[in-house]
């Protein structure tokens, strides 16, 4: 059975040997390997069953280290990094040759982030290489927000999961790139609300909706999906057929009428979008385990983290 715990030295040793290890972040758990070692990176793709065209995020612990593997940091990127790192924000920056093409799927930009988790920051500080890490779920399934989620799904394939408790944010990082004029473009909605980012760099262009040949395949139309079919309901009391006893629900604040209470999970009774984000993936997993045939999910307000939650629910609804 897989080992999990808080042994930083064990995680460090394994990573130095080219192994892959589960690591906690504030967003979701990552499946980490030495970003400068193509064999370790290949192992990540294999364990996740991830297509080679879907590039990885590189994690490190300081802007000084970032400068060692990117060509340049445009002024707006620097401003965002200084304001929000460590935090749930990933920046697409021109890569140096030291980053293997495998990491970026041949793109000339590399996705970079400094995660905000004390254990993982300690680990990154102790290593002399950055960590490539996608979310630690099988490709296409719901991202893990506890060490147990990682062990449940990848336990027989990886030697260790560093257990940092439940993820505080619960949604993958927001991904921002820059056009030729260095204007920021949002490629994936995520754990950093657009409102917060716009307060620093002004109005943002959002391009997280394309489905074919995606620049960020986290944007693939079907993704983050439970095994059971999921229906996204436009509003709270949309009609649910009372005959459908096999229906379960993911509600925002209050239970949905006509569905038995033991088949429902409430994301945030207080109506708090931050709390809803933190519960989202764990609750989807729980509903996926219930003896139901279909999951009804209530659409949340399109503001703050509600936007990213709705984005994940829309993708979970695509078959
Ligand atoms: O919060 C997160 O971002 C988590 C934690 C572990 O840091 N990681 C994560 O990784 O969500 P992953 O691999 O599941 O999603 C990374 C996304 C993918 O959709 C990928 O296509 C995109 O980042 N990406 C990576 N490099 C890119 C690049 N150079 N250009 C465009 N998109 C890129
Ligand atoms: Mg992922």
Question: Could you characterize what this model shows?
Answer:
It is globular, with a radius of gyration of 19 Å. It has helices at 8-16, 38-48, 63-66, 75-84, 101-104, 118-126, 147-154, 194-201, 273-289, 306-317, and strands spanning 3-5, 21-23, 30-34, 57-59, 89-94, 109-113, 131-132, 160-162, 174-178, 184-188, 205-206, 230-233, 247-251, 264-266, 294-298. It has a nine-stranded mixed sheet, with helices on both faces. Strands 12-15-13-14 form a four-stranded parallel sheet. A two-stranded parallel ribbon has the order 1-8. It has ten helices and 15 strands. It folds into two domains: 3-172, DHBP synthase, CATH 3.90.870.10; 230-317, Rossmann fold. α1 (8-16) crosses α6 (118-126). The protein is 29% helix and 18% strand. The chain is an alpha/beta fold. Magnesium ion binds next to loops.
Layout: helices, strands, pairs:
Layout: E1 3-5, H1 8-16, E2 21-23, E3 30-34, H2 38-48, E4 57-59, H3 63-66, H4 75-84, E5 89-94, H5 101-104, E6 109-113, H6 118-126, E7 131-132, H7 147-154, E8 160-162, E9 174-178, E10 184-188, H8 194-201, E11 205-206, E12 230-233, E13 247-251, E14 264-266, H9 273-289, E15 294-298, H10 306-317
Parallel strand pairs: 1-8, 4-6, 5-9, 10-11, 12-15, 13-14, 13-15
Antiparallel strand pairs: 2-3, 3-7, 4-7, 5-6, 9-10
Helix pairs in contact: 1-6
Bound molecules: threonylcarbamoyladenylate and magnesium ion.
The site of threonylcarbamoyladenylate has 28 residues, from strand 5 and strand 6.
């Amino acid at each position: 059975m897989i080992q999990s715990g808080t042994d930083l030295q064990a995680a460090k040793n394994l990573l130095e040997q080219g192994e892959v290890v589960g690591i906690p972040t504030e967003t979701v758990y990552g499946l980490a390997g030495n970003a400068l070692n193509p064999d370790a990176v290949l192992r990540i793709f294999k364990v996740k069953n991830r297509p080679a065209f879907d590039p990885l995020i590189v994690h490190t612990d300081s802007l000084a280290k970032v400068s060692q593997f990117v060509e340049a940091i445009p002024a707006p990127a620097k401003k965002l990094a200084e304001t929000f790192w460590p935090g749930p924000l990933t920046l697409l920056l021109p890569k140096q040759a030291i980053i293997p093409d495998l990491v970026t799927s041949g793109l000339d930009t590399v996705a970079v982030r400094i995660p905000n988790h004390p254990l993982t920051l300690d680990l990154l500080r102790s290593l002399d290489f950055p960590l490539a890490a996608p979310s630690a779920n099988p490709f296409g399934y719901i991202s893990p927000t506890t060490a147990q989620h990682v062990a449940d799904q990848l336990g027989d394939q990886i030697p260790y999961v560093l257990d940092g408790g439940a993820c505080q944010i619960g949604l993958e990082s927001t991904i921002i790139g820059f056009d030729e004029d260095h204007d920021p473009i949002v490629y994936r909605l995520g754990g950093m609300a657009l409102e917060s980012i716009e307060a620093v760099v002004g109005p943002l262009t959002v391009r997280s909706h394309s489905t074919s040949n995606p620049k960020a395949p986290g944007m693939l139309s079907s993704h983050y999906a439970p095994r059971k079919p999921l229906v996204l309901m436009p509003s709270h009391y949309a009609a649910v057929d009372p005959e459908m006893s096999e229906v379960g629900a993911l509600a925002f604040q209050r239970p949905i009428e006509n569905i038995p209470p033991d088949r429902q999970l409430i994301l945030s009774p207080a109506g708090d979008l931050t709390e809803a984000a933190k519960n989202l993936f764990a609750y989807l997993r729980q509903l996926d385990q219930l003896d139901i045939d279909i999951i009804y999910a209530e659409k949340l307000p399109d503001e703050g983290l509600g936007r990213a939650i709705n984005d994940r629910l829309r993708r979970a609804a695509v078959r």
